[in-house]
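User: Hi! I have a protein structure encoded as tokens and I'd like to know what sequence might fold into it. I'm fairly new to this, so please keep things simple.
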């Protein structure tokens, strides 16, 4: 079995108090190994998004422990958690989150700008990342000049440009039609297979989850099932 890169141990996340208490996660155990491609599924309110937020260091457990590559994230301060996100995690969102008045290339450069990477290296790495998603010829285009599928490819390139250990994708096909959705899933699948990137993807669509190697389903804050997909699409 692969070494766990992400691990939740008896993780709880509770919001509110008394009669208003909501137990979003209720004693969740989850281990994700290096180079896995995992779909996290469940209905609204099942806990899947809360789980993703904790894995992405965007939220903290109320109880239990989250370990990233063997290190307890609960023992890190706010700056250290921010550094973990910046250095080791790449994010892809349903809404693309591109800067409207900034070219595709400049959008992809942004994480490197925040790291203080010099301009010539930023440009070279951003172009390389766009090439990986098949958009090198659209580098100078603004988001408004790109289709939804192309915008999501730019967002994936931006997530890849820092060479993260993990890509966390939250409903990455949620704003796309069926054809563009398939193209994005095929791209993620190819990146995973060719470059051994660990990908954790939240989705409510079984046909998109079918591209993943493993399916984890949440219900009422707990893991209902955790199974391998023997024949990914």
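Assistant: Happy to help. Inverse folding works backwards from shape to sequence: for each of the 233 positions I chose a residue that suits the local structure. Here it is:
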């Amino acid at each position: 079995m692969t070494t766990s890169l992400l691990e939740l141990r008896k993780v709880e996340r509770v919001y509110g108090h008394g009669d208003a208490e909501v137990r979003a996660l209720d004693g969740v155990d989850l281990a994700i190994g290096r180079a896995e491609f995992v779909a996290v599924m469940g209905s609204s309110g099942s806990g899947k998004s809360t789980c993703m937020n904790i894995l992405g260091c965007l939220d903290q457990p109320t109880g239990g422990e989250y370990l990233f590559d063997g290190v307890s994230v609960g023992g890190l301060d706010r700056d250290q958690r921010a550094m973990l996100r910046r250095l080791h995690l790449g994010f892809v969102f349903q809404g693309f989150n591109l800067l409207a008045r900034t070219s595709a290339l400049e959008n992809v450069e942004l994480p490197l700008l925040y790291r203080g990477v010099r301009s010539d290296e930023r440009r070279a790495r951003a172009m390389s990342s766009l090439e990986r998603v098949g958009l090198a010829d659209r580098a100078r285009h603004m988001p408004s000049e790109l289709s939804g599928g192309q915008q999501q490819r730019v967002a994936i390139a931006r997530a890849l440009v820092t060479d993260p250990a993990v890509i966390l994708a939250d409903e990455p096909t949620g704003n796309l039609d069926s054809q563009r959705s398939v193209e994005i899933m095929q791209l993620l699948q190819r990146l995973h297979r060719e470059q051994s990137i660990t990908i954790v993807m939240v989705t409510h669509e079984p046909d998109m989850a079918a591209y993943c190697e493993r399916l984890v389903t949440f219900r009422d804050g707990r893991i209902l099932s955790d199974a391998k997909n023997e024949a990914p699409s």
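A useful reference point when you look it over: The helical segments are 48-55, 78-88, 104-115, 119-132, 148-160, 178-195, 206-209. Feel free to ask if any position seems puzzling.
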